[in-house]
């Protein structure tokens, strides 16, 4: 009898899903190229783990070396859909115990958060810039999707914000069949190192009164250069900032950056100091709005600037309204001059990625929901043009007056309900 019972138990165990036979940690550890699994604290999911994968630097030539790639796995249920975050930067904020991405909350989904290669803990040593390419990052995501798909067999959503939104779209371009739904937030598709569309956008965004107040503030900061410069120098000295240009030029670039930053983050024109403000009040607002840390020689976002200079593109500055007060003669090519590491000073921009993404988004009709903010300068180089009446699957939602902080939760109720209903329908089909 004991022998019969043993056989029955063995047969029944074979019928149980793999998830019931092994813990999630064990299943993660058993994945190909997994070199580390560590439990993490979470207040929003049943389980949460750091998963370290050893991935090749070059997917077409694995013999060229590898790096350790950091992935965070949030578990809601084996029968739940899964959200793949195509992060454009580092994963540090995903380690917060209370972190939960918007779509994973709306649809009670698992969450796979992929740190972008060459950021934070996913940076190869030595840092050979050869392998920092958009295609390689898409290959990384495809590998993660393939591996984790053995654990989570349900529907998948790929999503990202800002550069992560761009990464979502380039992932769709390279791997259009990988997931069921793509949801890029506020993601640009830039066509040049200095795209050119953002400057035009800033000349017409908001109201004429708001734009006038912004320009007058810029002029006032420049007119008071001699009085404010000592405060600027002391601030940078105390912070131990190092730059690739003289401090007088960094001062100028902070002034030029101000309008873009103002509209990107949805600032309030009513808070801009008047021309009668004291030097201290003017400086305090200025340094809070545009901290010169943005222009320092080396930051955790240096890898992004390398990508921008090489194939992702960026924005430029229109210096004409301020020219007579500036110490610089031109703002052109500032990205390469101020942000790119010295060893890459001769880097050239490659439009191949832009052409490939534009061709895919224009011709194809993936199940994709695009989210943008009306007043966000990045919308100027967004992919709204890809959503046309003839397409049945691609949807576009632009929040009126919205900034780079636009999310599904911030959309007007009718838009929000339509976006959620659209994604839910795809997940249930």
Shape: globular
Distance between the termini: 47 Å
CATH fold group of the largest domain: Rossmann fold
CATH evolutionary superfamily of the largest domain? Alpha/Beta hydrolase fold, catalytic domain
What's the average pLDDT? 95
So how many helices? 15
Q: What top-tier CATH class of the largest domain fits best?
A: Alpha Beta
Low-pLDDT residue intervals, each spanning 5 or more residues: 1-16
Question: Which second-level CATH architecture of the largest domain applies?
Answer: 3-Layer(aba) Sandwich
Order of helices and strands: HHHEEEEHEHEHEHHHHHHHHEEH
Strand content: 5-15%
- Radius of gyration, taken over Cα atoms and rounded to an integer in Å: 24 Å
Order of strands side by side in the largest beta sheet?
Answer: 1-2-3-5-4-6-7
Helix content: 25-40%
Tally of strands: 9
User: Which class of secondary structure composition applies to the elements?
Assistant: alpha/beta
Number of domains: 2
Biggest β-sheet description: 7 strands, mixed
Short description:
With 429 residues, this protein is α/β, with parallel strands linked by helices. The chain has 2 domains: 15-189 and 353-428, Alpha/Beta hydrolase fold, catalytic domain (Rossmann fold), CATH 3.40.50; 197-344, no CATH class. It has helices at residues 2-15, 18-21, 24-29, 102-106, 134-149, 163-174, 197-202, 208-223, 225-239, 247-264, 279-289, 302-312, 334-339, 352-363, 413-428, and strands spanning 34-39, 47-56, 66-75, 82-86, 110-114, 156-161, 181-185, 369-373, 395-399.
């Amino acid at each position: 009898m004991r022998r019969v019972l043993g056989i029955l138990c063995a047969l029944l165990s074979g019928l149980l899903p793999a998830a019931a036979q092994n813990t999630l940690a064990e299943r993660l550890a058993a994945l190909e190229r997994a070199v580390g699994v560590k439990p993490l604290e979470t207040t929003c999911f049943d389980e949460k783990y750091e998963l370290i994968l050893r991935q090749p630097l070059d997917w077409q030539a694995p013999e060229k070396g590898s790096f350790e790639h950091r992935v965070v796995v949030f578990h809601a249920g084996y029968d739940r859909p899964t959200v793949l975050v195509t992060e454009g930067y580092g994963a540090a904020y995903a380690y917060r115990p209370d972190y939960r991405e918007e779509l994973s909350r709306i649809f009670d989904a698992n969450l796979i958060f992929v740190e972008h290669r060459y950021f934070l803990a996913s940076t190869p040593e030595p840092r050979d810039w050869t392998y920092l390419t958009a295609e390689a990052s898409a290959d990384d995501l495809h590998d993660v999707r393939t591996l984790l798909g053995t654990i989570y067999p349900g529907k998948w959503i790929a999503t990202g914000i800002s550069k992560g939104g761009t990464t979502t779209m380039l992932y769709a371009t390279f791997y259009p069949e990988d997931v069921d739904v793509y949801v890029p937030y506020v993601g640009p598709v830039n066509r040049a190192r200095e795209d050119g569309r953002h400057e035009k956008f800033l000349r017409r965004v908001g109201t004429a009164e708001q734009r006038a107040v912004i320009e007058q503030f810029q002029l006032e900061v420049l007119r008071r250069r001699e009085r404010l410069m000592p405060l600027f120098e002391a601030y940078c000295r105390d912070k131990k900032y190092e730059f690739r240009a003289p401090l007088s030029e960094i001062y100028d670039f902070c002034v030029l950056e101000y309008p873009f930053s103002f509209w990107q983050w949805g600032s309030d024109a009513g808070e801009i100091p008047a021309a009668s403000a004291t030097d201290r009040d003017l400086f305090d607002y200025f340094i809070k709005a545009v901290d010169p840390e943005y222009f320092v020689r080396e930051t955790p976002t240096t890898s992004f600037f390398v990508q921008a200079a090489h194939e992702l593109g960026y924005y430029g500055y229109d210096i004409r309204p301020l020219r007579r007060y500036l110490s610089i003669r031109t703002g052109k090519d500032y990205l390469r001059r101020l942000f790119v590491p010295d060893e890459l000073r001769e880097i050239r921009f490659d439009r191949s990625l832009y052409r490939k993404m534009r061709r895919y988004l224009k011709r194809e009709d993936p199940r994709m929901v695009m989210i943008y903010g009306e007043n966000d300068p990045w919308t100027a180089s967004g992919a709204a043009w890809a959503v046309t009446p003839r397409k049945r699957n691609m949807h576009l939602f632009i929040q009126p007056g919205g900034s780079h902080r636009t999310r599904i939760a911030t959309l007007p109720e009718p838009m929000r309900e339509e976006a959620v209903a659209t994604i839910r329908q795809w997940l249930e089909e």
